[in-house]
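Lecture 7 notes: from sequence to structure.

We start with a single chain of 180 residues. Read the sequence below before looking at the structure.
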Amino acid sequence: MKRISSVVLATAVLCVAMAPSVRAQGSLRYGFNVGLLKPMSTYNDLDKMGWIAGAGATYWLPGNIGVRVEGSYSQTSHKDVLGSPVPGSTKIAGGMASVVYALMPASAPARVFITAGLGLYNVKSDTSITKVGFGGGAGVALKLGPSSMRLVLASRYTSISTAGKSTGFLPITVGLTFGQ
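Now the structure, written as tokens:
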């Protein structure tokens, strides 16, 4: 848990520290999100639905293309076997760098976007392993009044290669972003 807290804190500090210099060339949005995590494929055979939380920043180039960096932490509980509870949980901590493409301009009240990226994740259940993962998804960012705050609803399938199989999951998140 300390490693996860450190990753999320470092991501947030980096976003705030970079904001003034990056803003001069494009626009920077940063924020946080929380949501549900649905295990997929073989991960779904072992674990129940869980939760996920994260923080990140998107640097928008002039136009509709952005680069996103984010960190996340999630936890799911093991499923019962033959009606008996199985103690323990699966914890996933990591970060991903993504390319984001918005289908509407930043001035639109609702901005639909798609994203694809590559990251590094630590999966901890009975053992701990750190592997590369990739993901792709979509979302919508809704302007909240005259402020620069946006409500973001998003989902991105993520797959992590672990021990000859993949740990796949689908987070469904809601979050807030700030910035220009």
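The chain has one domain: 2-179. Keep this in mind for problem set 3.
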